[in-house]
């Protein structure tokens, strides 16, 4: 697995806007978010996009915001993921991944061997984990975990990263536009520190 050392910049602080304009994921809904919805959402302070570079190449992007998710006390997966906070409170403080993408030419390629894959997505997710861990440990902000609305083709990938479906309805509903998935803070912290040890 290749490990990347990213330089991450706010979208609205990019020096060269052509880096953004030339970026594509190859997935219409993800590209539409970036080029049709993002500016308005950032203006309204609803999300904030970060752009990841390796050298002078844009390799991926992610947008984060805070979210309050309503507790689902009847969900075994949510109870396992969030523990007592899910059982005792009506809402849970989360970080929402509003957009997560890898440049089309760096995405998983089924024709390549495992050791030839770039694994940008996995490495980029570790950047998000680092942000969450620092918010919790350095800035003392309470965060119970991360939520994401996973596109159908990405849900399996998120499962491999230890995300779970918010509830059984999400997991067992075919043909959805997206699937609400979650990961708890203990798993985020564990994955982050395991990745740091390997560096």
Broad CATH class of the domain at 62-198: Alpha Beta
CATH architecture call of the domain at 62-198:
3-Layer(aba) Sandwich
Q: Would you identify the regions where 5 or more consecutive residues have pLDDT less than 50?
A: none
Strand arrangement in the largest pleated sheet: 1-2-3-4-5-7-6
Mean pLDDT: 87
Structural Rg: 17 Å
- N-C termini distance: 12 Å
Organism: Leuconostoc aquikimchii
Protein name: N-acetyltransferase domain-containing protein
Structural features:
single chain; alpha+beta; Aminopeptidase; seven-stranded mixed sheet; N-acetyltransferase domain-containing protein
Structural write-up:
This protein has a domain at 62-198: 3-Layer(aba) Sandwich (Aminopeptidase). It contains eight helices and seven strands. The chain has helices at residues 17-21, 28-43, 76-82, 84-88, 120-137, 155-160, 168-171, 185-198; strands spanning 7-10, 48-54, 57-70, 91-102, 145-150, 164-165, 179-184. Helix 5 (120-137) crosses helix 8 (185-198). Strand 2 (48-54) and strand 3 (57-70) form a beta hairpin. The chain is of the alpha+beta class and 199 residues long. A seven-stranded mixed beta sheet has the order 1-2-3-4-5-7-6, with helices on both faces.
